[in-house]
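Hi U.,

Before I forget, here's the chain from the pilot set. I'm dumping it here mostly so it's searchable later in email.
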Amino acid sequence: MHGPRHDEIVKSLVELLLPALPEGGDRIVATGEADLGHSTSSLSVVGTDGSVTPVASLPEFDLTLIKLYDDTVGADAEPWNTYTLTVERDGTHTVALSYVSPEG
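Structure:
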């Protein structure tokens, strides 16, 4: 599932999300879908008390996510169309790319 620029692009995504993490937030979680030239994202902040608060999406994030998708397609890597990216306050992160059939 990884193209040649995977790590570089994920690092850019993390750098876009960290400033959106408000004081009192433990982590920010981005979820959504991607396809050729298209991306949708939902962002949520998980607070120190476990609360989950939606935050406004970032257009730059979706554009960068499209680059990640294109990088994968260009490498003929295993296809994916959904993702979850979790970024902790200290910058550590996890990314999960998966394929969900459009038929359900």
